[in-house]
Amino acid sequence: RNHPCKLAASAYPFEGMDIATTDFLMDVEGRSACPACGKSRKFFCYTCYVPVAEIQSSVPRIQLPVKVDIIKHKNEIDGKSTAVHAAILAPDDVTIYTYPNIPDYRQEEGVVLIFPTPSALTVASLFSGETYQMKENYGLPKGYHMGTLLRFRLNDIVDSHVQQQQQEEVPEVLPHADYNFPVKRAIFIDSTWSQCRGIYKDERLHSLRTVVIQNRISQFWRHQRNSPRWFLATVEAIHQFLMEVHIAAWGLDSRYRGLEHIHLKMDQIPENRIFLPDEECSDVVKPYNGQYDNILFFFRHMYNLIHKYYDHDTLKAYKRPLY
Predict the structure, then answer these.
(1) Engineered SS bond to 17: which of 132, 197, 258, 301, CB 3.0-4.6 Å?
(2) Closest CA to 288 of 323, 322, 241, 321
(3) Phi/psi of residue 72, nearest 5 degrees
């Protein structure tokens, strides 16, 4: 079960997820040199994005269905950012850039920015070709509470005219992994909310299609003033996005129990997307059953460690309002 913290299993947010054991991390004594830069590190180097040699063979390595670029503000402290976890655990697919040194994505196809704007699409709508017009709740379905995600309405920084791309309908289950995805690269901004809005104004990002993910309660232990529990840590947001992409493309395994403790609105997943896979059919991608849960490998370990020494109910981060 791998959760030595002061929470009942029913309240443990990672219960049912397929995350590799982190028990060996508790046996790591002291610090060791980063295999790349030689600096003293505990579990991994947060500037080189590699595990220390002692644990390298035990740290999981995962492949993602899309490329993930993380743009961090220069004032973000590397050692405190959860974005680093994703780069270490999915090194072939995750790249971290420090703003303003970022690529120009404007000519690249299939790029989306995970950022809440009035014209943002849901992940499911990317695959269905459905678009939402400006209306109540900014046109988003229930479970994507724009008002709770933003401290300010974004009318001052978002152009009302955004090019809408109509896409062909995709089959209920995509046939194979190299299917022509409507999204090939997802961009996340790793910064405070005020810094995030400033980065979004950059013309290299401002014209990109924006996407919002479903609300779920953050388990991040660092208190963020004036922000509700729906504000996810970067690695949590990446995990949520990857799950939604996989479910939209290949469905959700009805046996998976990892969604039951993160306060996700299950009614947002259509019933026809939840099914048992055909075990005899090996040439199709299986529905979601924890394939990307290991992106939370280090995040869960730190959560366990914090809760080993502190009572959950006394931590300010978990007293933030839900709305």
Answers:
(1) 258
(2) 241
(3) -105, 145
Question: Is residue 229 pLDDT above 60, yes or no?
Answer: no
Residue 319 CA to chain centroid, in angstroms? 22
What is the percent of the chain where pLDDT is above 90?
A: 50
Which residues does 115 contact at the CB level (< 8 Å), separation at least 6?
Answer: 189, 196, 200, 210, 211, 212
Sequence-distant (≥ 6) Cβ neighbours of residue 290 within 8 angstroms = 17, 18, 19, 256, 258
Give the pLDDT mean for 110-137: 80
